[in-house]
Amino acid sequence: MGISDTPFSPRNLLCQENPDACFKEQQQEEKEDDPCLFSESEDEYYIQCLLHRETTAFGSKSCCASTTTSSSLKRVRLDCIEWIFNTRASLDFRFLTAYLSVTYFDRFFSKKPLGDWMIWAIRLLSLACFSLAAKMEQSTVTPLSAYKLQEYDFDNQQIQRAELLVLSTLEWKMGSITPFSYMSYFINKFCGESKPEGLCSRVAELFMAVTKEINLTDHRPSIIAAAAVLVAIDSQLTKEAVELRISPIALWGSQENEHIFSCYNMMQDIEKRIVKTPASVVPPHSAAGTRRRLNFNEQHCPVKRIHRS
Asked: Where is the Cyclin C-terminal domain (predicted)?
């Protein structure tokens, strides 16, 4: 196929710097007995910083008008997400890396609509988003040759040009906030010290599943996080019960509370499908192996930190 006559040309746009050096993490991941629990004062300051950045990115709205795309383009997006999730599992990457990949993907195509691109270019861009997310979140840099698309054989230079296009389109602001950033905070707020066993796994599973249901640029990460934690704790709450749970948390107004309940309802449906899915239909390369539930361990619960924008 004629790659040279594509939006990734001219070739002189190729970054001359070592791409591995651009995003290499400068700090080592902390290891804690329970990484989902932190001090209350640290949480409050951290969350205020996140919300400030989130408001800057999303504006005052907690939920934007849903992005409309054709059914065929939705299928393409889902195929890209499936590839991201399967590649994450095969390489044993963090769940956050996969979620961040989808965030980059949705941010990119919110600026350059899906319908303007050939299918192969969309797949290449999804690969570039995954590679960039891995450079942001993984402790070691994986060679580009490790990322395989069955239908296409992209060389390193094509992938690097796609990465550069994503970087320039997103204005090099790669420190996207995700619901994982809020996980420990809402677990502490809603559970205190009585955290149910396996709660982090259930919350992470909902985070991952919701990427297939919504465009991530349409919903604030804090709203998704609060709803997911509530569903993971109790998926049978009424609207009044949800409002009672979130009322002590002075982060939002009435509009945000409505959006949390709307997101809670959506995740209720997701949770029902997860519970009803027989283990026999889960692919062996899925994130949970032969189990339906994700095995969410210390490595996948991100240590609190504020990424550079």
From this structure: 177-294
